[in-house]
Amino acid sequence: MTRRQWLQISGMAALASAAQPLWAQADSRFDILIKNGEVRDPGRGFHRKVDVGIKDGKIAAIEASIPADRGIDVVDANGLYVTPGLVDLHSHVYHGLDSNGYSIEADPLAATSGVTTWVDAGSFAYNQAGAFRKFTVNGSQSRIFGYVYLYPVTRNPDEDPVRHVRRNMSRTGETAVANRDIILGIKLQVGSNMNGRWSLEFLKIARELCDTYDLPLMAHVSSAPPETDQVMAYLKPGDVLTHCFNTHSIGILDDTGKIKSSVTDARARGVLFDVGHGAGSFNFEIARKALDQRFLPDTISTDVYTASINGPVYDMPTTLTKMQHLGMSLDDILVRSTSNPANIVNRVPGMGSLTVGGPADIALLEIEDGSFQLVDSQRNTATVRKRIVSRLTICRGRRVVAPV
Amino acid sequence: MTRRSLLQTLSIAAAGHAVPHASAQRGRRRRPYDILIKNGEVRDPSRDLKARADVAIHDGKIAEVAFDIPAERGRDVVDAKGLYVTPGLVDLHTHCVFGVRSGIEADPIAARSGTSTWIDAGTFAYNQVEGFRRHIVERNKCRVFGFVYLYPASRNPDIDPVKYVNDVMERTGRAAAANRDIILGVKFQVGSNMNGRHSLEFLKIARGLCDEYDLRLLSHISLAPPETNEVMELMKPGDVITHCFNEHTLGIVDRDTGKLKPSVKEARLRGVLFDVGHGSGSFNFKSARQALDQGFLPDSISTDIYSANVNGPVFDLPTTMSKLLYLGMSFDEVLNCSTVNPARVVTPLPKLGTLRVGAPGDVALLSVDDGEFELVDAQRNKVTAKQRIVSHLTICKGKRLVVAV
Description:
The complex is a heterodimer. By secondary structure, chain A is of the alpha/beta class. Chain A is 29% helix and 26% strand. Chain A has a domain at 86-351: Alpha-Beta Barrel (TIM Barrel). Chain B has helices at residues 3-14, 106-113, 129-137, 161-178, 192-195, 199-213, 228-233, 262-269, 285-293, 317-326, 331-338, 340-343; strands at residues 33-44, 49-58, 61-66, 74-79, 84-87, 89-94, 115-121, 143-149, 183-190, 216-221, 240-242, 273-275, 363-376, 382-396, 399-400. Chain B has twelve helices and 15 strands. In chain B, strand 2 and strand 3 form a beta hairpin. Chains A and B meet through helix 4 of A and helix 3 and helix 5 of B.
């Protein structure tokens, strides 16, 4: 457009606006209008039967009774909860090029589960961040962020492990810093089943790296050694411990079923505890004992990946349902699957909440009655009368649809 | 090629009919060709063709190679005066899984280097084949194939290496067999610097896998142990040794005597292929010269291009070709090693690497420029060459490759 053309157009617009507002000339209707739903945004204590108008990727109106003719795509949410889009803090969505072979594709699952934001928990290392951005983040309708794994996988079994991890520290840190828009921090799997005798040594390196580059750490916990106390000692405020309700030897409960004091201390100083269900890391009994001691998780997440997506995890609503079964209220659950994880992501203003001007990331959820079987990671089953299901996922103001 | 078709080709060439006059076909088609390359010097080593001729490309294929095809018969007419018109270059050893390990993006370099076919040499393992297909093969405008790495890299330093590799063999073999349209075989890096004490054991596993699934093996060689003869013994006809002109202990030339190792000569005789695979560390002028002096030309010239060498010493395939030209190979020999020879490993596309009518519409426009050019090998040895090979246009699948702005 030349300067002259531009002046002409803006001049015309100025003239036109005298007669009618500019928005009236274009289609001023909402891209999507959600009517008759129960808006539930416990992160800001909002719970009301109101309509939600979406335009240009943002929430444009939250009002009682918006006329249906003001929407292009009108969604009848009668009987449904209209909630902030779910944020899954622990997932594996680096689909296709994941060198561990863990990852699933985000969008098809987003479309059916109400999840609008996925945090990949270290399916990639620094030397795959380029592909993570290009193919996964940029290639998805849903929002994707990630924790970069502490060190890259190696083909050489004879390389000194500590040397390998140390050698890659600065590149990992620099990659995380250079990609702060999509990389949230560092992931490490702590457990003898994950990195043999080296877990504690690697955790120390991770601590050093996170301190040097000012990055949060996400630590998976599974089999000791190291012991829980040793792990907690290395976690700082804002760090995330995932798999908090596992039944493994690195866990939050002691032999008598009480919350370990190092865990209580860690929470008191601001370490966050995430569910991270996964194929092996969520146990009903452990979770119930923790909840009985008022130890609610800070975030509820799936750890969905190839080995858990077809059970026992399936999707985020199923994991939420398990927490409901264990006695958590719907609002307690929603806070931990919307605003809490969104605050940890902390990259998109307004994400995890429903406010005018904020991002139009929305889930339409239903509490369905019936008889449903739930299964934990150890194949313990429970039958419940209510389950949470997703009816529609809207991300960036558009319906998320499964690619054909 | 069957014996019969070979004889036919030879007799046609002998009769001087390899390039017909365009008039022979005039009036038979109405639609103009997508691309018509006029006035170039056609060089097609696959059939020893060297002639000033025009090349027409249509519907992604070579449609006509003839003298004087009228310009009005092309929609996009390229004047190739003073340029060589060759089959699109085939780079047998690249790392083009962008964003993974040291992989680079193929298309921008393809566009400036005449390289229409890229073969990724094991940047990915079996569990990444799906992403390789979807994100790399299907997204690039140039052709991409790959060798799958023998085993996926691991996060756990305390695994039993041999058990680990054995455990994944079946999955690697199945992934390769299920994707034969893009997977050409199995890649493995043999050398104590790559997999410690386990190289020979892993190579034996690779041998078993390739035999079981009928797959080609592409073996990198670097530091002994194992010794060269131990590696050669496990290579079969059609397998490829890459980094053949390295200066490492696991090499083709005896470092004391400068002579080709007997096991190498013997391997070549039984059909093992030797590929350059320049890379950051694997091409040495002296090693290459010693081999060439003994009549040991490579079967294929390739770059082993990746992020650490794309800005030197490798740059691109024409630069690597220029190094072999400098070392005394003729332009036609160099071209042979960067078109039809490497194309032979691309079994899914039998006519690749040629300019025959009906072959894939992949063409490079090259020149051999005179001047003074500095060339650098992997050990930073420098020479000044009087000629270099330069690409002027890359056509792939019947379309010009252009660098996206």
